[in-house]
Every structure is written in structure tokens, then in C-alpha cells.
């Protein structure tokens, strides 16, 4: 009975008792969720356009941020370092298309998936070789990102919003909006959507698949860079961040592999869900449940809706 | 394809032959260093590796080794990974190392049983299995100068002192414990529970899973809710800078945030000036103003023989590496004194470690006066349970802010004994100590 | 010319359906076994035995387990590391609860525990497939790892939070713990691996294996043909977890000697997945090739520079290991997407027609 009380009543009593903490928890979950969404967005972009389940998205985030910080530490001014990092991501996209995707075209999905594993290893090795393996500090101020916090005295308590987190939310929204426009309004965007719908049909109307892939990987690289900057500002840029990026996977399940809105909403659900779970229910089992809660939420969800929130209905034929 | 296979086979054969071959020159003393300059913990590992290596290289360059015998130093990269660490161990074993320093609790644990069989002493400096301080049960394992339980007791004592004196002042206080959710962080839990019952303070636990080291906002929300009077941290790697940043974000009073001895300057710097006030335990200085460090700068760093950038010399973890190597060197020196041999073996160095006695005079001789306190190990006590002090981060470096604090040996001692006994019982057939004891005192 | 089945006539169905219908294959297998049982112990140094061969065999066994799931049944799993952990912890608990029973019994029995856990986490496989299932198995990976850390009962409340292996004997000879000679451990590992490989080989070539492959190729079609999907898929999960569990128990008891929960982390799962795919999906010998490549290659990259007299830092060597391993994975995928096992087949085919190209 006591246990039931602790599970079903007590957390809600706590929420009511200190609404400021509830708001703070929701906010932290929201920010975490935005970052998950961004990683998931990178996955979705690539999956849609090339059918590749890009496992390397997480390490691309670390690598992009590391390049930026690495250049900055070598004395390059921050804006230039940012440009250089973008340039490196472009070269990476070019290289991936030439060396990995093109020779592997038409192979089963799992082969391409494995190839991105190989890419992960290469990026880890190259990143550590060039920039060293120690955690690096993100030059927040030099990049023109705000620092400090806004403290709101509401709900009989204090809700503290980090400016960098607000910036993260704003930049993420801007990015998603930009991508949506890009997809809807531009020629390349339309080509991208055509490729996503049907490779062969797209080819037959004269769309260059290779070019599209470079663009998509480059876009995913920029998304990765933005995510890396934001997460690097919250903690440090280190290879341990790669493990966190795995959190984007349950987001993908929830949102569906091919849906951009799904990635965003899925990210927010996972982010908020795991923070609420850890904060209000975690103490019941000694805490630290955040590492698997997201996967279990996603798994439970899958049992009822195997194609995800916005995924296309799977119709199987023989 | 065939050529490929042949090459692969040839290479394989070459490795198989090469690994046990190439022994260190017979007259050298072989000291392998297990380091991790890669992997998720490379940030801390690189400084430690540089410190360890540079001190030993300095002995080679300045004194021509120890007692006239050169040290053959070889690094093996573990990446903080247990499997790679064991591979390193197997790779160095045929070369007759006089001692191994695993630098990872995960690697230390499998070696505990192997050490006695392979006759290679293991020095796990202030990490590894706490109970291995009991020399009667673990004659081959050494973990000076303190165990994690000692560390916890000293932090509690320091908190009591902040509250105005005796341990009774802790009554009714709330102390938060933020820890890496792994063996290392969980080890002090029973001890902390005992203390809190005895002294009447309340503990709040905040575990951080290893995969979530850089994502601690939930833990710190809990801190905000519980408002503990003090926070204690047992963290490692990327967990530490993240925790300090989150503490700043949560407006937690940094003066009341005390960590075990692992955070470095870099860990605190990321949070900026607001991190000033953050405290850690330490047992050695964190500056370069000592003759021994000057010697390293002159012979090694200045000569371009070090992998360490100049500004790293004298930082907390670099000096930690130097201290570790000092123990290695002194153990070898003591072994030479005991046995009268020049080229000592693992068995001799085990005796050297048990007879280790670095007193004030010896510290001065080594140019380490004021660098650290004296340490003496015995056959029964492989730890020393040395006092530590609290250092405060001032925004750019750590400054010593307390006197030496003695650990609660009366409380920790029996726990360690019981634990060592339990270990021997659980591992049925654990060999009883047969190694003779040299120190007469 | 040496590898040609001309003149080998089969006089019964049993002979025709044998796993190795060609005499040369049987001789080859006998040779390999002879090398493994006699050759390597004779020439291999302690490093070779303890750090190359034992891990290789154990990883190969785990890879076989995973291959049954991915290669034969088409279900991707990213939780193998955790299932190995289940085996290891089960074995630890069983040996401490019932110390009187022989360790080999418990190593095999711990596979059954892992098998049960595997079935539970295999349940979603009926509803979901492909990458979705892969991510679902990640839930098993992270949840089980959390259990290893958090459930004190599993590690007998050791303050170190790790499991340690005391000395166990077989016929009076220590086979686990520190006093066990690497060679003894090697023979035990080799024995178990050979027996279990033989068992797996019979399994996948028989009715059950054919069911699995039908499910892999198209599960709806398989269903229409009367294969019941849920039992077939769950059986694959069960057998796969059994192999992983035994491999995990062997890893801690016969290789590492003590383990923290971190030993069974997500990287372990990934590395096994590499082995299976590089080695060849749906091929037992491929699992061995994959394990050899992924485990032994980094050792070569690490030691080769020293053997060749080049001086590179240990950290640089490690970075290069990552780079080279990654590059090789991509290289092999491009050159031979069906894995090393396919290369093996091609080589056999070439030998068969040699010296004439067709």
C-alpha cells in the first residue's frame, strides 16, 4: 500500500507542493529534449535521403564541436573557427559520399549501418589524433553566446533559466524552421524530398543522387555542429558525449525514422519524460534510472504503435 | 586475397614472436606504466601519465636511474579499459616488471589475485580495493596513502570543523553525496550510513550513471529540492566539470561543495570564476615551486623530452603522477637497500614497499620538502592512512586552506579488516600470507 | 587440384546431408582442431595464449550467438554485451550459492539464465523489426547494466561492486582464479567452444535453422508456410542469449578473473556486432573470422610498430588503431559486403577449379 502511495500519489503531491521545481524540471527536460531532437534530426535527414541509419551522427557532433574548439585553442578567432569547422564538415560529407556511400550503393541497409560504425571509429581516431582526447572547454563568450541566468521569482519559488539554454532552444527552432523552408521552397529541397520518396524515380527525372547525398550529409554535419556547441557549453566537449548521443535512438523510435516533426516531438517527450521520471520516481529505486528510462518509454510505446508517432504505416506484401 | 592473408599471417606470427621477445636489458629495472591518454577519461589520464613518466625519466637523466641502475620505462595504453589493461599486463609480464600501476580500479581488481602468483606487486595509489590496505591478507597489493573511506572520514571531519568544531556539530545537518554510480562511488556508502547514524546527520544520495556523466541536471534538481548543507562528490572524468558547472547553475554555495582528491584545475575552470570556493582533498602540493619539479622542468620538460605542455607541470594531477612515481622510485631504492642487490626483482620491490619509509629528512633530500607529508608502510598496513588537507579553488588554481586532517582510523580500520576478511572468505581458497616480513619494528 | 570432390560418391542421404560432405573439408577441420589443440599450445607464448587465443575464442562464441540472431533469423540486437553480463553474474551467483558443484556445470547453467532473460527481452520482436528492434534491445542493454550496478544481491554486496573469481578446480587442476595456468584455461575454453560450435552447426543446418532462415528472408512468407513466428523468433533469442551467457561467464571466469559492470557496456555489444558483420552474416566460420579480425588486428597494430623498431607513443598507437580499424571495416564492407566468410568460400571455389579458371 505504501509503495502504491509512493508511486501514484506522492510524486504528484510533491509537484503540487513546489510548482517552481516542477516548472524547473519541465524546463530542464525541455532543453535536454531539444538537444536530443537535434541529434535525432541529423539521423532523420540522412535516413530520409539515403536510407542510411547513420550511427556516426553522435560522433559527428563531438567531432564538429572538437574541430571548432581545436581551431579556437590553436589561436584562430572564434567566428573563423566556426567557419572552418563548417568547412571540415563539408569535406567530411564529401569524403563520406565518395569513399563510403558511392561504393556501397544498393547494399542492404545493415551494410551501410556498419559502414557508419567504421566511420565512427575513424572519427574517434582522427579526432583524438589531431586534437587530443582531453575534454575541452567551449568558448561560449567568444562565439557570442549569452552567459548567466534569468531568475524568475514565480510560483512561490525560483525558476532559473540559463541564457545558454534559451539560446539553444531559439537556435534549434530557427534551424528547424530554416530546414523546413529549405525543404519546401528551394529547388534542392524539392529534389531532396523527391529522393526521399523514391530513389529511382528521382534519378529518372535527372536528380543527381551523389550531389543530394553530399548536401544531406553536410546539412546533418551542420546540425551536429550546432548540437555540439550547445552541449559543449552545458558541459565540456569530450568523447564521453558520444554516449549521450545514443539517447537520440529512442527519440527516433518514438518519432519514426522518416519524420522531422516526429524527431522534434519525440525528443521533447523523451527529454521531459526522463527528467520527470528521474526527479519524481527515481528516488524510489535509488536514482540513476535516466540511463535506461528513455529506452523503456520508447519500447513501451513501440508495442502499441510500431511505426512511431509520425512514421508511415508499414504495409507488408509478399 | 592470398597475398593479404599471407601478410596477415606473417604479421600475426611476428606479433606472437615479438611480444614475449625484446626483454629489457638485463641490468635495467623494468617499470611499465599503464596510462590512458585516450578514451573518455583521457583528460585526467594524460596529466597523470606525464607526471609519472617525467619523474622517472628525470631520475634517469639526473641520477642515472636509482642506485646506479637505469630504469627501463615503457608505457602501455589502457584507455581505462579493463580488457586492454589486462592485455597490457600480459604483454609486460614476460619482461619481469618490478611493479605495476594499473591506474584503474577495474584493472586492479583482476590483478589482485594474479599479483601473488606472478610475483609482481601492484601499487594502486589511493584507488582500487580499499581492503587491500590489509597487508596480512593482500601481501602484494599496496594502496597508499589513503583509502576512499579515509577520504570520506576526512571530508566529514572537515565539514564538522566548518560547523565550528566537534563531530557533534553535525547533528541535524543534511549532507548530499554525489557519486559516480560504479564500484568506486558506491564504496563509501555503508561507511557514510554508519557515520550518519552515529553522528545524527542526514545523507542524501545522488548517483550519476556512467553513461550520464555529462547530463546531471536531474541530480542537481534534486539537490535544489533537498537543499543539503554540504555536498560531497566522488566523481571521475567528465563527471567532475559537469557537476561543477551544474552546481554553479543551481546557485549551490561552492564553499560547501567538497570533493575527493580527483578533480583537476581544468575540471573547475570550465565553470569560470563562479566555481571559486570549490574544494577538494589532497595530500600533495599543486604548484611547481619545489626543487624536484624544477629538476623535472630542467632535465625533461626543458629538454623537450616530455609530452607535457609547460603549463601542465605542477598541476594537481601532474603532481599526483609525480607522487606516484616517487613511491615507485622509493620502493625500488628501499628494495636495493634491503637486499643489497642492484637490479631488484618484483619480489624485492614488494619487500621494498613494505619497508617504505619516506620521512621528512628523505623528503627534503628529494627536494620534496613541503610537497607532501611523510609516509611509512608496514607489513600489516599497506596504506598508511595519511592525513590530507583541503584545497580551495580560487578561480584559476587550488590553494591549501586547511591544516592536515587525520582520517578516522579508529572507525575505518575495523571496517577494512572486516572487509579484507570477507574478501578472503568469499574467494574460497585465498592463500594465507607466506611472505616473510622484513621490517623489524 | 588438391581440393576437389571428384570421386567421392555418396551412398546414403545421411552422407549427402552431412555438414562436411567433402573429404578435404573434413581433413581441413581435423587439421584446424589439431593446430588448436596441439600446435598453438606448443608454440604459443603465454601472451599468445592468455591475451590472444582465449579472448578470441570467447568472443567468437559470443559472435556465434549473435550471428544466430542476426545472421540466421534477421533480428538485429544491440544487447549482446548485457546478455553476456547476465551469464557472468548468474555464474557468479550460482558458484557462490552452491560452491560444491563443478564450475563447468555452472558455466553452462548460467547460459540458461541468460537464455530466460533473453526470451523476455525478445518478446517485442514479434511486433517490431529492423532498426526499431535494434533500438529496443538497447533498452535491455542499459536496463541490465543498471541492474548489475544497482542490485547488490547480484554481486553479494561486495564493497568494490565487482565480482571476483576464486579458484575452482576440474579433476584437481585449477581452471579459474589466479593459480590456473593460461594453458589450462585455454583448453577449457577451447573444449567448450568446440562443443558449442558443433552444436550450433547442427542446429542451423537442421529444421530449426531452416525455420530461422525462412523467417529471416521474409517473415510473412514464412508464416504462410506454417512456421509459427513467435516460437521461432523467441527460440532464436533464447539460443543466442544462451551462447552469449556462456561466453560472458567464460569471459569473467576464464579470461578476466574479475569484472565490474562496465565490462558489459554498450561498446561490447557493438564490437560483437562488428565481428558478426565483418565475419559474415549467417556463417559460423565467419564468426571466427570476425572475432579474429576485430580482436587480433588491434593487437597487431599496437605491437607491430615496436616489432618493426618504430618509436611511436602508446597513445598515438591507440589512435591509429581506431583509425585503421574503422578504415578496415569500411574497406571490407566495400570489397566484400558478405563478410570474410564469403572470401573464404570464393577461395575454396578457386581452389576447386585450379589450375583451370573454369
The description of the largest β-sheet of chain B is: 7 strands, mixed
Evaluate the radius of gyration of chain A.
21 Å
Mean pLDDT over the residues of chain A:
82
Overall geometry of chain B:
globular
Summarize the structure.
Helices cover 71% and strands 3% of the residues of chain A. Chain A is mainly alpha-helical and 318 residues long.
Essential attributes:
heterotrimer; A: 318 residues; mainly alpha; globular; B: seven-stranded mixed sheet
Structural notes for this entry:
The complex is a heterotrimer of chains A (about 325), B (about 450) and C (about 350). Chain A contains 14 helices and two strands. By secondary structure, chain A is mostly helical. Chain B contains 15 helices and 13 strands. In chain B, helix 10 links the parallel strand 8 and strand 9. The longest helix of chain B is centred in the last third of the chain and has 24 residues. Chain C is mainly alpha-helical and about 350 residues long. Chain C has 14 helices and four strands. In chain C, strand 2 and strand 3 form a beta hairpin. The model of chain C has no long low-confidence stretch (mean pLDDT about 85). Chains in contact: A-B, A-C, B-C. Chains B and C meet through helix 1, strand 2, helix 3, helix 4 and helix 6 of B and helix 3, helix 6, strand 4, helix 12 and helix 13 of C.
